[in-house]
Write a structure and sequence with these properties.
Number of strands: 6
Order of helices and strands: HEEHHHEEEE
Structural class: alpha+beta
Number of domains: 1
Distance between the termini: 9 Å
CATH topology: Thiol Ester Dehydrase, Chain A
Largest sheet: 6 strands, antiparallel
Helix content: 10-25%
Shape: elongated
Low-confidence stretches: 1-17
CATH superfamily: Hotdog Thioesterase
Length: 170
């Protein structure tokens, strides 16, 4: 046990940007991952998502029901925003300098704030901002915000996500 602590301490001194016992970089806080790609929201994608989350309102699956409510096409359930958010989050997780081992990640919390409904035909992208990295117990909580925009650059909404990254074993 003492040998492990000594190894962690020497490792932290060798790379002061990393949190003790973890590969996560403290400098991750405040980092922005700009929107690099857009994706087109499809009807079938919305329908599949609605079925998966058991959102049964007809506006999620029936174009005419959505149009009767004033929307141009089927309307995504609010949690559909996770698709754009996770695309943005993947840029952080796949960034080697972030030091996040995805096999050690547990999704802890997700919040959604939509400015408008997402509908089929929308072209969305998301920018990710790392809000905080907090050491807690045997890991670190990484909290991010994904700002989702449409093709015109208008904000569609914001998601807030917290990922618990478990410390490395050994």
């Amino acid at each position: 046990m003492q040998a492990r602590r000594a190894l962690r301490a020497s490792s932290a001194r060798a790379n002061p940007d990393k949190l003790e016992g973890m590969s996560i970089a403290e400098s991750l806080v405040g980092r922005t991952y700009p929107a690099t790609e857009t994706f087109t929201v499809g009807r079938e994608s919305i329908r599949d998502f609605a079925r998966a989350v058991k959102a049964s309102h007809p506006a999620h699956t029936d174009v005419e029901a959505a149009r009767a409510l004033g929307y141009p096409d089927v309307v995504a359930p609010p949690t559909y925003a996770i698709i754009a958010a996770q695309r943005a989050e993947a840029r952080m997780v796949n960034d080697p300098s972030a030091g996040i081992d995805f096999s050690r990640v547990v999704h802890a919390e997700q919040k959604f704030q939509l400015d408008r409904a997402i509908v089929a035909g929308d072209e969305l992208s998301a920018e990710l901002v790392v809000e905080s990295v907090r050491v807690m117990g045997g890991g670190a909580m990484v909290t991010t915000q994904a700002i989702i925009t449409d093709a015109a650059g208008q904000r569609v909404g914001v998601t807030s996500s917290s990922l618990l990254v478990r410390a490395e074993e050994g």
